[in-house]
Amino acid sequence: MHLLMAAALAASTLISPQLSGPFSVGTFDAHLTDSARLDPFQPSKNRELMVTVSYPAQRKGQQAPWLAPGFATAADPILSSPAFLDVPAGTVNWSGTLRQARVDAPAVPGKWPVVLFSPGLQAPREFYASTADDLASRGYVVVTVSHTYESLLVEFPGNRVEFGQTDGSPETMKKVIDTRVADMRFVLDKVPGLHRWADTSRVGIAGHSFGGYTAGETMVRDRRFDAGINIDGAMEHTGDGGTYAPGEVVTKGLDRPFLLFGGDMGERELSHVDTSLTRTWADFWPNQRGWKRDVHLDDGAHFGFSDLQWSVPQIAQVTPERRAGLIGTINPRDALKAQHDYVAAFFDLHLKHRGTKLFDRPRHPGIRLVE
Q: pLDDT tens, 219-244?
């Protein structure tokens, strides 16, 4: 027991970024069951989801853990492994690291627009806490979703943990995108019961990587979503070795606002003028009928659009080479500020109808507007 306690004390407790909006933020998790839908990955039972809600709140209560203890225990061997951070297990005190949001803090009354967020392929919703909390601090109800049996793992009440079980086949990838779209539509149905001040007449959707594809594809199939952001995600379900299979968002475009926000992979970039990583942004661009912009974060890597952007620089055991591969070489604070400001500016413009000049010319280090 003493050895375990010593190991916990030796683990690094990280510091999450301060909120940039005028509001403090409250948060809670919710367990949702879709009684009208069997789970495509476990067809013997109904689809279950875990979501996290972040919202403008009074500055009261305890700060929320970044990762719940059960989740942290199950995830640490995976996150620490050579395939990811490549650090000794137990290096990071995941559950001791706190978000800026406070558990069940009293809500600030108002009519707050709603934004739903979908994580990257196999990524947990917990790794987008700073994106959600920062947007909530600017006057939004933000709901992040874990996609069960595809996410790395999902912790349900009663310490039940469900691990991801997907492969990269084209058939599985088609099932994944269809399941994600159904998940997001179902969660929107449930939002009024989750938060009394949520204004579901103004709804945005965003996502990272495969979650960006999810955002676009959900907008194609559900007109309740007014505006969307794809953060560094190919919009296809081609799978490993499959024939090119772009989503309907690519082939049809949208008549509502959609932002592409890309980063780099080595010397290649994800943008509508570079098809080396995916053709989907280039194919989408001429089909998009609504407002569109392609914003690029130079020297920012794929996982830098998650909470790794602020956490990895605090983990001394991560090598410089691994750090650059995960979050790029851009100054982490510059990257985080740019991400938070552009996501908020987009939704402020299209859900709150507040003007912004961020899309007229770059105003942040590393930001480039792709013409």
A: 999 999 999 999 999 999 999 999 99
Question: What is the rounded distance in angstroms from the CA atom of residue 98 to the CA atom of residue 108?
Answer: 22
What tokens were used for 242? Answer: 């499959």
Show me where the domains of the chain are located.
Answer: 2-369
- Top CATH class of 2-369 equals alpha beta
Residue count of the chain: 371
Q: Which of 102, 95, 132 is nearest to 116 (CA)?
A: 132
Q: What is the 8-class DSSP label of residue 287?
A: G
Handedness of CA 100, 132, 161, 240 (dihedral sign): negative
Contacts within 8 Å (CB) and 24+ apart, 41-49: 41/148, 41/149, 41/150, 41/165, 41/166, 41/175, 41/179, 42/149, 47/148, 47/179, 47/182, 47/183, 47/186, 48/148, 48/156, 49/145, 49/146, 49/147, 49/148, 49/183, 49/186, 49/187
65 forms beta bridges with: 98
Please, are residues 366 and 338 in contact by the beta-carbon 8 Å criterion?
A: yes
Model confidence at 190: pLDDT above 50: yes
When comparing pLDDT for 6 and 13, which is higher? 13
Task: Identify the helix (H) or strand (E) that includes residue 5.
Answer: helix 2-10
Can you tell me the mean pLDDT for 71-82? Answer: 95
Would you say 313 and 329 are in contact if contact means Cβ atoms under 8 Å apart? no
For residue 230, the cross-strand partners are: 207, 260
CA dist 371 and 368 (Å) reads 9
Burial-class residue 321 by CB neighbours within 10 Å (0-12, 13-18, 19+).
exposed
Residue 110 is given by DSSP the state S
Q: What contacts 201, CB < 8 A, 6 or more positions away?
A: none
For position 10, what pLDDT does the model report?
A: 64
Whether 99 and 179 have beta carbons less than 8 Å apart is answered as no
pTM for the structure as a whole: 0.96
Of 236, 309, 238, nearest to 270 (Cα)? Answer: 236
| Burial of 198 (C-beta count, 10 Å sphere; 0-12/13-18/19+) | buried
Give the three-class secondary structure for 96. Answer: coil
Enter the tokens of residue 253.
């475009």
Summarize the chain as % helix, strand, coil (round to 5).
35, 30, 40
